[in-house]
């Protein structure tokens, strides 16, 4: 299974989510889980988890010129905590983009989707920000599911609205995942005209663990901001066959085909949420002032090229 994760603006937590899904994937012990940094602006995992820059995306691109055996992908991965593997990209976009372009434009298609066809394999392709013309698009278009991660402030929604229609056509199972505080989920769904597949809470403590900045053992009581729980619920949803969880009533705006409706406001005001994804406040007024501590998180710009 290939799951593409991407953003359209800022740093809403795509890489963090990829690691969280790999760690919380159902029956993880019997699955080969791979977080593949196919972000053309460069990678963060090597730096975050103290891994060497190679093997990784660049060495795989070189090897893929010599062999088209998909098994070669695993030779270029490294171990992440919790048993998953990582295909790390170099920091900085120049080398990452070049390697990615080589992999994505192979005459017989990119290797990663072939690896992901194995029943015992799940690949989380961290596509980063999918600007038009991104070389990651070729990989995202082969995915079984695509998760667009966005913040919940007005500017985040405006950027998402501009790309949503296009991204929804890339895979059979596109999904919109909200992060952090901002507009209530129901307002976002109404404005964008699609149901969200969930909403990740602002949880700096869990994020610090998932980005290698804090060992799991450093977790203190009362630290549980819910990110791991929400990621596990999302992992269960993605691992299921693509059947809708709840059918939206006729009065709902049209959803994206294949997206399991995760939170549907029925006319009577009852929220339907999957297990583990609690309802979000729908009555709070939209925030007027952007608070950087609570939206889209602090961007991780280390080693990244500035994007226009
Ligand atoms: N749910 C969360 N709560 C709080 N902080 C978070 C959360 N998710 C991610 N972060 C923090 O936000 C920062 C950016 O996260 P991450 O690198 O995952 O974003 P990204 O979308 O991959 O960014 P980029 O496009 O720059 O690669 C990190 O410092 C991370 O610890
Ligand atoms: Mg990232």
Automatic annotation (TrEMBL):
Query: Which portions of the sequence form the region Disordered?
Result: 243-308
Q: Which Gene3D superfamilies match?
A: P-loop containing nucleotide triphosphate hydrolases (3.40.50.300)
What residue spans carry the Polar residues bias annotation?
A: 297-308
Q: Which InterPro entries match?
A: P-loop_NTPase
Show the ranges annotated as biased composition (Pro residues). 246-257, 276-289
Name it. Answer: Carbon monoxide dehydrogenase maturation protein
Which species is the source of this protein? Amycolatopsis japonica
């Amino acid at each position: 299974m290939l799951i593409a994760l991407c953003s359209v603006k800022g740093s809403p937590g795509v890489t963090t989510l990829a690691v969280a899904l790999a760690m919380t994937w159902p029956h993880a012990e019997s699955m080969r889980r791979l977080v593949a940094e196919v972000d053309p602006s460069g990678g963060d995992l090597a730096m975050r988890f103290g891994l060497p820059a190679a093997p990784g995306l660049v060495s795989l691109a070189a090897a893929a010129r010599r062999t088209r055996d998909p098994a070669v992908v695993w030779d270029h991965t490294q171990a992440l905590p919790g048993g998953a593997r990582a295909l790390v990209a170099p920091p900085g976009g120049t080398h990452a983009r070049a390697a990615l372009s080589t992999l994505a434009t192979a005459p017989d298609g990119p290797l990663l989707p072939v690896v992901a066809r194995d029943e015992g394999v799940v690949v989380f392709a961290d596509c980063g920000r999918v600007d038009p013309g991104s070389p990651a698009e070729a990989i995202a278009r082969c995915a079984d599911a695509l998760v667009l991660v966005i913040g919940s402030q007005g500017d985040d929604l405006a950027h998402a609205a501009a790309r949503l229609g296009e991204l929804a056509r890339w895979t059979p199972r596109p999904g919109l995942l909200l992060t952090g505080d901002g507009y209530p989920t129901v307002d976002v769904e109404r404005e964008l005209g699609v149901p969200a597949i969930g909403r990740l809470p602002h949880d700096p403590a869990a994020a610090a663990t998932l980005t290698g900045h804090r060992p799991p053992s450093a977790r203190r009581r009362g630290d549980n901001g819910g990110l791991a729980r929400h990621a596990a619920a999302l992992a269960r949803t993605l691992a299921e066959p693509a059947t809708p969880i709840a059918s939206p009533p006729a009065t709902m705006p049209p959803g994206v085909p294949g997206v399991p409706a995760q939170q549907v406001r029925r006319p009577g005001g009852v929220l339907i949420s999957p297990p583990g994804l609690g309802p979000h406040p729908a009555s709070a007024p939209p925030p007027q002032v952007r608070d950087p501590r609570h939206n889209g998180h602090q961007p991780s710009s280390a080693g990244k090229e500035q994007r226009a």
